[in-house]
Design goal:
The protein is an alpha+beta fold. The protein is about 45% helix and about 20% strand. It has nine helices and eight strands. The radius of gyration is 21 Å and the shape is elongated.
């Protein structure tokens, strides 16, 4: 089992397809063992074998498994039509984050803006739970005390760190208006507006971040996107996720 997992990891990290000998050398495995594992993975769709080049690459079954791991409940697919409409109406890219443990988020879905100059983010990337606009929103939804906020804030590494008191105020503001804002703190030149979605049990489990280049957006549009996000959150909670509304909407 350990060897099979090692082969899968190797396939996932390869930049180009490789033959059995190259893979076995890279993993320091006997060629016969490596061939047997690759053959079985190919039969199950977890590896792809090119008969012309005799090389292997990661198979579609592995890709589908990884995607399912990012979003086990398939929440992104459920709400995607509404997210796509939001992107078309606001001309912003939209990130769908899933909380994966006590202090991490994974990007489980992404819809690019139709704007010619837009931001792209890679599905699967991970960030600290309390960083950026989505982090401020999670801090509010989880009801962090001032002491908790100070502790979590001290562990964050920003490109341009906000002041702790400003961060606290922005967490409180999220609870008032239903969205949080990051003006270039997480990523220079990028403005992000975020809100939180709860799962069917009422737990804050997902984040939505509208991402825009700062030089293409003014304060009025930031506010408009925030209000649109808050309405989107209410719509999704009411019609799709079946959870109760919290203080922020």
């Amino acid at each position: 089992m350990a060897q099979t997992i090692a082969v899968l990891r190797f396939l996932a990290n390869m930049s180009v397809p490789l033959g059995v000998n190259a893979i076995s050398r890279g993993l320091d495995l006997p060629t016969s063992s490596c061939f047997r594992i690759l053959k079985q993975l190919a039969e199950e769709g977890y590896a792809q074998f090119d008969r012309d080049t005799k090389c292997y690459s990661l198979g579609s079954a592995a890709v589908m498994l990884a995607r399912r791991a990012l979003d086990p409940a398939n929440t992104f697919a459920l709400i995607q039509p509404r997210l796509t409409r939001f992107v078309a109406e606001t001309q912003t890219s939209l990130c769908f984050w899933r909380r994966i443990d006590r202090n991490r988020l994974v990007l489980a879905g992404f819809i690019e803006s139709p704007h010619p100059l837009r931001i792209h983010m890679s599905v699967g990337q991970r960030i600290p739970l309390f960083i950026g606009a989505v982090g401020r929103a999670f801090a509010g939804e989880l009801g962090l005390s001032e002491k908790d906020i100070q502790r979590e804030f001290s562990q964050l590494r920003w490109q341009d760190s906000p002041d702790l008191e400003d961060y606290r105020h922005q967490v409180s503001e999220y609870l008032r208006v239903g969205y949080a804002i990051d003006l270039g703190n997480f990523a220079p030149g990028v403005t992000t507006v975020a809100t939180i979605l709860k799962d069917a049990l009422g737990e804050p489990s997902f984040g939505l971040s509208a991402v825009h280049l700062s030089n293409q957006i003014d304060s009025q549009k930031v506010e408009a996107i925030g209000m649109a996000l808050a309405r989107l959150k209410q719509d999704i909670h009411r019609h799709l996720l079946g959870c109760e509304q919290g203080a922020a909407g």
